[in-house]
Amino acid sequence: MWLGVLWEDSKLKLNLKLASVAVAAALIGSAANAQDVIGYITKSATNAGWMMINQGAEDAAAEEGVTLVAVGPSFQGDLSSQLEVFENLVAQGAAAIAVAPVDSAGIAPAVNDAMAAGIPVVAVDTGVSGAEVTSFVATDNYAVAKVQGAVAATLIDDGQTIIYVTGNQAQSTGQERRNGFIEAFSAARPNSEILEVPTEWNSQEAQEGVEAILNSRQDIAMVANAWDGGTMGAVAALRNLGYGAGDVQLVGFDGASDAIIAMREGWVHADTAQMLYQMGYQGIRAAAAAARGETVSPRIDTGFFLVTPSTSAVYSEMVGIE
Amino acid sequence: MERGVENQKKRSLRDSAIIAMVKFFRADWSGAFLAILILGIAIELATTGRPFFHPSNLMTILNNSAAIGVIAAGMTLVIITAGIDLSVGSVMGMAAALTGYVVSFWGFPPSVAIFTGLSLGLAVGFFNGSLVAYFGMPAFIVTLAGLSIWRGTGHLATGAQATPELPATFDYFGRYNPFASLREAYTNGELTGVWNSIGSFVDANWINFFRTFQMSMLIFVGFFILLTIIIANTRYGRWVYAIGSNEPGARQAGINTARYMLITYMFCSFTAALGALLFLGRAPYAKSDYGQMWELDAIAAVVIGGTSLFGGRGSLWGTFMGVILLKLINNGLTLAQLDTFWQMVVTGLIILIAVGIDIVRQSKNPESVRKLLAAISTVMAFLAAMTPGAIYLRAKIAILEHNAAEALKATGAQLAPGQNARLLSPSDLEAFEAALNANIGAAALLSLLVLASGYAVFKGNTMLTWVLSACFVLMMLPLVTMGYQITVPFLVLGAAVALGSNFVSTLFDRARALNANAT
Question: Is residue A38 part of a domain?
Fold first, then answer.
């Protein structure tokens, strides 16, 4: 772990420098054309889902005429660098900050400081626990996961065994999705056994875990996933063991493009899509509005879309999957 | 006269057992192997249904070990030269992403793409190795920089986007099953004569055996056999060890140490690229964030396998066992459906056990072996104690939390939703109090056993260990009547290990005498 610390530390300095340079440059610019600077602290720049959220954020900033300073952690889950970047943005005088916390409780002190200094804070995707925010823009993970669980239950008979691939259980997103799914699924299929494959949002862990269980038991009827990286890992596991599309039911979460393509090929049977682009877009719109002093709703639900083979064409067109 | 002969015969049987044991513990991989065995038996007891040591389950573990396994092999050689390569995870990610990228978006034929990926590995290795061997830069720094450079390059070159599904050629590095076409021909009824009976045999045992007989595993095992032969039989193999144990000495003896270090780093990065291909053979697509933290897994596998981080000592088979142990932990704990957070704790403990056995093994000191055995029996007592103990503690804590929350409420403090959960309903409160009373006796008795076994770690005493073993056996009865059958294996192992600790020094003396006779 010493290595991880070292690595995060070196990367952190880079991030901080970038953030301060960018904010300073943007502030000089703001004197000339009076543009508000919105700080945007994202969770990841390489995850397919996050790239869609970040795209929404950029488009909203362009429409609102604000300058977006986007900073991401080097690692998904790196709280210390998020805290430092956050404090840096506050110190440099950003007009509002949108943040996707990697740790709901860990980010709270920094949020409190910013709100006390009169800087509006908008939480995107993941909520903050232990601090008030100006607005929370996200899918209600728990509610959507309940829909996912209920839909999954209709795909199999009561008493059949399923696998559930979890997300990181130390994060609220991972907990809410798991709890929502299991509650709704177990209510509809009380005699079905649920075997869990724990992951930290890593598709390799999903693939290996699903493969291990599928190989040791012949009675698995479905694999449900907390996110679509897991869905694609499960597809790979099925292919590795020589299963064909449709032999085992697959249920995803996120509506990522590769999972939708796998649905067209017959692998995936249902996917509760978050409106990822909307999350970034609405988040920055709310932050810009708050920066201008307008009141914004404290909770903006960006909704979801239930993608099934019959609705996948509509969804594909909506989010631009060819 | 006759009795004397018989005695000699008997002794020779016991002696050959001792000799076999000494031989086993001389091997670098014995620590990891024992840990694998212990863990396997524990998982076997914890899971129902198909046995854990089932060939198809073991083959699944081998299949999923292949990619990290070949990388750990390259890392072993680097570490034996007293170096380190922190960049392998990033090189693996870059090679995987670019191989997939050129085949998907540039229209390269798969063979050319594979060649590109492997050459990329060699080129990175040349860069790393030159800086270390010819410019005298510390390997730690060069490859730490590489960790960042190659990951970034991979992201930049591919835009961090996943490729579409790769061509079927890549299956030959992973999920391709040599028996699949035979089985298909059989099920289509295209076979005759002896082929037909082979086909029917394969089809009948498909799920049980042949389904998981895949290229990943074959390449993985073949690679280790080949590399072991090369290292054991070439000058290069001997010099790698020589450089690691005494680099200036090796140079003075006329070995071109710089060149061989360069070769070793090139080989290590090459294995990272090969690992990328093995990974692509089982993965859904190619992406530049593959292989994150793999450098730590590879180093862990090497160290668990008994290779010294200071160089000069170690073996490839140790690394092989180390990789299997790491993957076995994930696979077994998932099959056992252990809670996520417990999996993290248990993973760390198993690694400690493997490395602990290795350190004691190297100390060649009977007293430390005795201490290790006594410590193991203490751990067994602790595990047995925790069975009623955990229920007792949980009940105790729940009641404490309930009382604290009540007290907070009485002062008028506002409770957040998460904190409200600490309040118990009256029926729960009653259940917890019943659990307290039911488990306190057993928990207290077993805690005494833990303390006594712990005392035996520091102070060896033949009488005490006999009493302890008897206590281990006696405790089984009340625990089984309470319904805690799960503690039986812990108690049996604890009793056996405590007893065994009495004979350690006798064994050592005999082994030394035999050794002296032999030489």
Answer: yes
Confidence of residue A308 (pLDDT cuts 50, 70, 90): very high
- Locus of tokens 């009641």: B399
Domain boundaries, chain B: 30-176+214-363, 367-409+420-518
A98 and A217 belong to one structural domain: no
What is the average pLDDT score of chain B?
86
Is the pLDDT reported for residue A320 higher than 90?
Answer: no
A118: left (phi over 0), alpha (psi -120 to 50) or beta: left
Count Cα atoms within 13 angstroms, Cβ side, for A115: 18
Task: State residue B507's pLDDT score.
Answer: 82
Residues A125 and A14 occupy one common structural domain: yes
Q: Are residues A129 and A51 in the same domain?
A: yes
Residues B509/B516, Cβ–Cβ less than 8 Å: no
Q: Is residue A258 part of a domain?
A: yes
B285, A10: Cβ pair inside 8 Å?
Answer: no
B343 touches chain A (CB under 8 A): yes
In chain A, residues with a C-beta closer than 8 Å to the C-beta of B175 are 239-240
Nearest Cα residue in chain B from A45: B160
Residue B113 has pLDDT above 80, yes or no: yes
Q: Do A131 and A181 sit in the same domain of this protein?
A: no
For residues A23 and A119, membership in a common domain is answered with yes
Could you list the residue range(s) of the whole structural domain that residue A58 is in? 2-139+276-291
Whether pLDDT at A250 is above 60: yes
A158 lies in the same domain as A69: no
**CB atoms A46 and B288 under 8 Å:** yes
Q: How many CA atoms lie within 13 A of A44 on its CB side?
A: 17
Query: Do the domain assignments include residue A296?
Result: no
Q: A-side interface with B, Cβ within 8 Å?
A: 3-4, 6-7, 10-11, 45-48, 51, 75, 129-130, 166, 169, 195-198, 203-205, 207-209, 211-213, 215-218, 232-233, 235-236, 239-242, 258, 261
Q: Do B282 and A236 touch (CB under 8 A)?
A: yes
DSSP per-residue codes, B236-265: HHHHHHHHHH-HHHHHHTT--HHHHHHHHH
Which of A244, A261, A248 lies closest to A313 in space, CA to CA? A261
Query: Of all residues in chain B, what percent are helix, strand and coil, respectively (each to 5)?
Result: 80, 0, 20
Q: How many domains does chain A have?
A: 2
Cβ-Cβ contacts under 8 Å, A197 against chain B: 334
| B331 at A interface, C-beta within 8 A | yes
User: What 3-state class would DSSP assign to A123?
Assistant: strand
Of A305, A251, A250, residue with least CA distance to A276: A305
Q: How far apart are CA B78 and CA B128, in angstroms?
A: 12
From B65, which residue of chain A is nearest by alpha-carbon distance? A208
Residues A127 and A152 in one domain: no
Q: Please name every residue paired with A69 in a beta bridge, in sequence order, or none if there are none.
A: A39
Query: In this structure, what CATH number is given to the domain that contains residue A71?
Result: 3.40.50.2300
ipTM: 0.76
> Could you report the per-residue pLDDT of A118-127, keeping only the tens digit for each?
899 999 988 8
Q: Are residues A78 and A197 in the same domain?
A: no
DSSP states of B155-199: HHHHTTPPP-PPPGGGGGGTT--TTHHHHHHHHTT---HHHHHHH
Domain covering B30-176+214-363: architecture: Orthogonal Bundle (1.10)
pTM of the model as a whole = 0.78
| A299 within some domain | no
> Which residues of chain B neighbour A169 with C-beta distances below 8 Å?
340-341
